[in-house]
Amino acid sequence: MKRSIIQFIMAIFIFFFSLFLFFRYPSIFSQFENKINDMMFLARGKRPADKNIIIIDIDEKSLKELGQWPWSRNIISKILKNLTNDGVGMIGLDVVFAEPDNSSPKKILLKLGLKSKRAEDYDKILAQTIKETPTIAGYVFNLKNDGIKPTRSPRTNAIIIEKNRPKVSPIIKAYRAILNIPIIQNSAYSSGYFNTIPDDDGVIRSIPMLISYDGNLYPSLSLEMIRNALHKKIIRVNYENGIVKTISIGKLKIPTDMYGRMIINYMGAKKSYRYISAIDIYNNSINKSLVQNKFALIGTSAAGLLDLRSTPFDAAYPGVEVHANAIDNIINQNFISTPQWTIGANILSLLLLSSIILILLFLPNIFMSLVLFILLDLAVLYLHYYYMFSKGIILNLLFPLICINILYFLGTMINFFYEKKQKNLIKDKFSKKVSADVVEELLKNSDKLLVQEKEITIFFSDIRGFTNISEQIGSAKKLITLLNDYMTPMVEIITNHKGTVDKFIGDSIMAYWNAPINIKLHADAALEASIEQIIKLEELNKTLAREKRPNIDIGIGLNSGKCIVGEMGSIGRSDYTCIGDAVNLASRIEGLCKIYGAKIIVSKFSKELLSKKHYLFRELDIVRVKGKEEPVAVFECYGTQKYAWVDFDNNSQVLYNDALNLYRNSNFKEALAKYELLRAVHSQLLYELYIDRCKYYIKYPPKDFDGIFNFKTK
Questions:
Q1: d(CA 47, CA 267)
Q2: Which of 184, 183, 206 is nearest to 195 (CA)?
Q3: Cα distance between residue 87 and residue 157, in whole Å
Q4: Could you give the CA distance from residue 92 to residue 672 in angstroms, rounded to a whole number?
Q5: What is the DSSP string of 207-224?
Q6: Domain residue spans in the chain?
Q7: Cβ partners under 8 Å of residue 708, min gap 6
């Protein structure tokens, strides 16, 4: 007992200390986390890059033949014209022409005081070429005050709509824009910035999709090229909880961090995309098929032009190829991201892994414990890799690894100070009688496991049409596998919400909250778990459909009340369970789900205990179930304000409440009309039930109708 308390306290301390470091010093540890993710990229290796993205390279070969950079603008003009003549799809300039071209004959003659009327103006030539070609001009933002007063604004024809925008947007703000000279900027159909902002260690891992300047949002070069290629005008910025969640163009959605930055899912080391030397385009000496209908980015890989960046794959990576990866990620929807929900997932994983380590520390065989611990470490690494590259989700790896390794090391040391035999006796005695949660509670305070009367919330769930599923699947082994695949996540959801799984009754689950562990908001916890099960089941059914296995539909009944809870059974064979009228009512309520076409039905006793306000309810009926004389009001929970699975808007709610009141006041004809109106909008079994009742009562008017429906069967 003492050893268990010490280990539990140690685990709690390490867990909360890890959370403290995680939230208090994220920037310090994020550097290490980023390095781990970089190693994941290296372990993954190269992925096939999109062949429709090419890079026109201002390389050493081109510089040797055409001279040092910057080239005269007529050279750039010829490259753009040749690309266009070869049928290029879209051109993006990863260069900015911030100063006039002083090599233009016109400018030279003017400087010498000679006639220049017919002399060529290279800036004007390039401006006209940009106007006549599918070229998106480039520019760069200066994010910090460099002492130069901001003047002009960039040019874009994008319409940017911000949904749920907070008062202060977290999107990165720029001090000033370093733009092309006016004649070039004004001739461009549109333009995009090509800023790449490195992390603190100098590595480019993300790119801002939008930057705020002078009160307006401007798109990146890659985003603007895709928008124009899709012939879309609107870019939507979707905020959630005050931060950026996604950026979308038409059907393309880009997951971002809170600042609107997209993490780059690099396809590999440099030169993953086809590079074509600029001199070859200039000389028009390439096969047209190499550029036809392609996204072409014009940039440089030459070391002397200082456009090399550090990435997870290379310390000297051409900056232009970063934008190529960004375009690839967006058009192929091949992202890696860190959604807001991963914060909760990281905390839960930390808690789950800490719990697993505690379990490992209680194993009687230290060798087996060590083997499982090593496997757990490897599993954590593998799952991080799997979620990063198969699911596109980056979970935190550093803290779970640190936490479980420290916890296991200290826990193992503690085990040496206590007798293994004592631990084995406790485990052997109670693991056969109670669940793992009950064992943990018993080790802390065995008095809590005495038989007592407590208010609890009872949960019953049942698979709809299980007999048909059994007949359809045809094999007992396959049926058990299906049940296990369904039961496992359902049970995990219950236990994650601090519920206790009491028993499995065929395809049914019975669970309860507030015993043996006291839970203040036990009704809320039970309902939250129920809602999560319905959502999880939708995900599971998609997997089952892909595997051509039967889909599963369930009904859930919740009721709260005082019950007797404790260790019950015969000598040598007992279990921690609960009994009482509230349990029977919960079972009957679950049975009503099929009748009313509901997924979750809650009794008024549970509903009255709820503290949170985000649930969606509608009253179903007042019923008198079999075996109970007292009528009870029952309510359908059809989700939360963020997610609902029943079409029931405000208009429907008003109409439904009116219909229900008319029904209870024996105005069956008026109620029938309203229920038929509801059915016309959204056909639901609930409306059909009341329509049938109203028609029956119109034909056979009841005497002393009190609005209570009596069920004669279970």
A1: 5
A2: 206
A3: 24
A4: 64
A5: EESEEEETTEEEEBHHHH
A6: 51-331, 445-646, 647-710
A7: 622, 623, 624, 631
- Residue 36 burial (CB < 10 Å; 0-12/13-18/19+)? middle
**CB burial of residue 637 (10 Å; 0-12, 13-18, 19+):** buried
User: What is the DSSP code (8-state) at residue 147?
Assistant: S
Say which DSSP state 149 is in: P
Beta bridge partners of 299: 57
* Tokens of residue 431, six digits: 């693991």
pLDDT digits (tens, 9 = 90+) for 146-205: 889 988 999 888 999 999 999 999 999 999 999 999 999 999 999 999 999 999 889 999
In three-state secondary structure terms, 160 is strand
Q: Are 678 and 687 in contact (CB under 8 A)?
A: yes
**Alpha carbon distance 50, 48 (integer Å):** 7
Q: Tell me if 110 sits within 8 A of 160, measured CB to CB.
A: no
For 592, counting Cβ atoms within 10 Å of its Cβ (0-12 exposed, 13-18 middle, 19+ buried), the class is: buried
Residue 687 CB coordination number (10 Å): 22
Q: What are phi and psi of 107, to 5 degrees?
A: -70, -35
- The helix/strand/coil state of 679 is helix
SS3 of residue 564 by DSSP: strand
Query: From CA 82, how far away is CA 66, in angstroms rounded?
Result: 16
Cα–Cα distance for residue pair 136/192, rounded to 1 Å? 7
Strands 308-309 and 90-93: unpaired
Tokens of 297: 């980015």
The rounded mean pLDDT for the chain is: 89
pLDDT in tens, 359-408: 887 777 778 888 888 899 999 999 999 999 999 999 988 888 888 888 88
CB 93 within 8 A of CB 83: no
Token code pair at residue 219: 């798109």
Amino acid at 25: Y
Place of tokens 């064979």: 573
Alpha helices in 431-497 (DSSP H): 436-444, 466-473, 476-496
Backbone angles phi, psi at 706, to 5 degrees: -110, 10
DSSP line for 224-237: HHHHHHTT--EEEE
Q: Which two tokens stand for residue 256?
A: 């971002």
The residue whose two tokens read 């599963």 is: 552
Q: Reply yes or no: is the peptide bond before residue 70 cis, omega within 30 of 0.
A: yes
Q: Is the peptide bond before 516 cis (omega within 30 degrees of 0)?
A: yes
pLDDT tens profile 643-658: 999 999 999 999 999 9
Q: Which CATH code for domain 445-646? A: 3.30.70.1230
- Does the pTM of the predicted model rise above 0.70? no
